[in-house]
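Sequence only, no structure available. Ideas?
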Amino acid sequence: MFPSPLTLFEGFTALEATVAVLVVSVVAAVGMEYAILRVARRYVASTDSAYDDIVVSSLRPPLVVTAALAGVFLLTQVPAVRSSVLVSPQLLDAVFGRPSLSLIVLVWAYGANTVVNRLVAAVNAEGGRFDFAPVFSNVWTLAVLVGSVGTLLWLWGIEITPLLGAAGVAGIAVGFAAKDTVANFFGGIALYFDDTYKIGDYIVLDDGTAGTVIKVGVRSTTLLTRDEVLVTVPNAALNAAKVTNESAPQRRRRVRVPIGVAYGTDVDEFEALALEVVAAEPLVLDSPKPRARFRSFGDSALQYEILCWVNGPTRRRRAQHELNRALYVALGDADIEIPYPKRDVTVSGAVGPAAAARDGAPESDPDPGVDAAT
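Reply:
I predicted one. Tokens follow.
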């Protein structure tokens, strides 16, 4: 068993113990700041990873505050000090002891929350395959908050058993009242573990809503559409809907350009011309190579489909526009007809005075109410 630190102050007077503890606290805080942490920062600065820099910078305040306030708490536990002050030991604990420990708990909760959130943000910024979803930061923040509150209640001697019972009843009531919020919360967690999407992905929902994911929250996910409109979708709805992630597993996407040419067209000449036009478009990727596919014999045209790839789902519409323009101009210059439906309209059975006169029928009396004899 290790001896208690309080045995080091046996035989000290109250003044001597106070001075000794304060000196030790100041020395510990200064040493932590200018010796240990400075060496640690110098070491992590020489490494290639940015994660150790985040850990050291985020844990610096809790370490320094702990080194300073631990001495204050220790001072309230020294027998010579407790017996020499004018106030009772209970009041001494309530004014100096427990508040110092409470501050230590709070700064460590803040430090733990900060270091994890910064690490998650750093991993997300790298865009790796196994990205942390931002919802993990929210769950961690909630866990740290609950843990720190529970520790503070225990530290101040507040019985938490009745609170747990009341919390259970309140949880049931809140669960029924806020069932949609709870469903959205667990829906966000399910989306994260399913690796459905991440920030920056372009997704399409089964109702036609499409956009780039710019924020993943506890309750909802925010999309930025091509019209630069923000759409907020509840996580529960996303978890129940069919979500098409057009940015996974890779960002390149295929473009299909349907086109028809007239019967009698030299298909070899047309295919070579179409592929030449597609290869000249800057938005089209060189690999996989563009292809022309003869799909069917239409009513008035040979139905083709030009297939190519672009770097990202948001470029497909622009690429299709440019390819349609270029193909129209190129086929016109090459005298290759793009057929369209034609109809012949025949008008017959005309009725009127002129037609009746041509057929030999007598013209009607312009004023049938006037007697012809008058």
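The first strand starts at residue 202 and ends at 205.
Hope that gets you unstuck.
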